[in-house]
Amino acid sequence: MQRRFANLILAGTLIATPSFAGTIYTREDAVRIALEKSSDIKTAEQNMKSAESKVSGAYGNAYPSIDFSATYARTFGVSDVRKSTAISDMLHDVDDQNADINDKILGSVLDNYAYALSAMGNGYRWGTQVGLTATQILYAQGKVATGVEIAKAYKRVNELALDQTKSDVRYNIETAFDQVLYLDSAVAIYEASIAQATDHLEYVKQAHEAGLVGELDMVRAQLQVDELTSGLEKTKKNQVIAKNALLNTMGLPWEEGVDFTGTLRSPDDGSVRFPDTSMNGIRQRRKELAQLRESSSMYKKNVDIEEGDYRPTVVLGGSITYQNGQNRVFKWDAPDWDDNINKKVYLNISMNLFNGLQTREKVVQAKSDLRKNQIQQETAERGIQLELESAVNTWNDAQKQMDIQKRKVDLAQRTLELTQVSYEAGKSPQLDLLDANMSLRNAKLDYMSALVDWNKAYDALLKATGEY
Questions:
Q1: How far is residue 10's CA from residue 109's CA, in Å, rounded to a whole number?
Q2: Any domain includes 43
Q3: Which DSSP category does 270 fall into?
Q4: DSSP letters of 402-437?
Q5: What is the CA radius of gyration of the chain?
Q6: d(C-alpha 373, C-alpha 367), whole Å
Q7: Is the domain of 398 the same as that of 286?
Q8: Do residues 159 and 280 share a domain?
Q9: Cα torsion angle, 73, 77, 82, 85, sign
Q10: What's the whole-model pTM score?
């Protein structure tokens, strides 16, 4: 039995023998390339960069804000503002000898006063304003610090999403790779069966010419070769599709003649262990649950932010502004610290007293979002428990099928050996020999299919427990 089963394993290991017609990828190569080129991972990485930017932006709210503004305007419908007024004109008309010093002083004061009123009332046709303003939030109901915490939680959610995406890509690669190996093995088994059937056909032709067998026996042998050839062609087409699908999952274009080399895990491999199926461990390992926990933290903090609108905001600010007005477009006065530059420092306290109950409704919505997230967590845990139970049952069934398929191969091999001896002794018809060959081929294919199913079940079990 051990020798016959060894022959099966030898046939199965043909999956690790590439044709060297093109590029050859190992399982490790496929996973590495997929992690580098997968569009899903690239999208998750971009989401990660966006999350990191949100953290930096949230910290920015704690720093002072400095703004620069410049305005140059033309005002229509105003008269020129002149330094000389009716009062100064009147003083010029008065003989200086008749005006004493008090008259001159009073005239000068009234002249400047009239000029100021004219500038304020009529304004200048051309005006310039350049300002620099700085503000610092001193208290904002905890929104700044809470906003930073939300941004960090959002970043953590995206980190977990990136890890989950990488895990999904590895799982998809492993599954697709196993399918390619199965089809490679199926092609090898078909080719070996065709070679055997062709040899048998030649033997039957020679026996027919010698009159030892009838024409019907030769037709049956030919039909077996035709059937195997048709099955090989179909399997090769599926093989091409499977390789193309694997390359697509790797993020690579289709390449003709590409090969994949590797082996399938076997239940007899001592390194295969049963994963931890305890829910406590699964809760810690499953990325989906960790994402929901971080999202719950975000929603809780969002409630705090919305409730913060019930409290005041305190802002410290200061500004330096240069203002100047002129009658002509090209005239410009240099900034003077005491004349046309305004300096200001202020402390602003603002608090909303009534906004149509908008704050209250925002708090209600934030609490509703939090509750929906909690419901998602509960639903996800139940779904994971169901997924785990299904994965364990599927793996156990696959384990049983492996044992059955091993025995079927041994039985088919032994049946073929006995039928061959009986046929050569003339005790069994050719049909029995053809059936025995077909049964062995089908048993080998069924075994390889069961091995692939076992690997898929084991991968699904690792994925369900969060150990993938």
A1: 115
A2: yes
A3: T
A4: HHHHHHHHHHHHHHHHHHHHHHHTTSS-HHHHHHHH
A5: 44
A6: 10
A7: yes
A8: yes
A9: negative
A10: 0.70
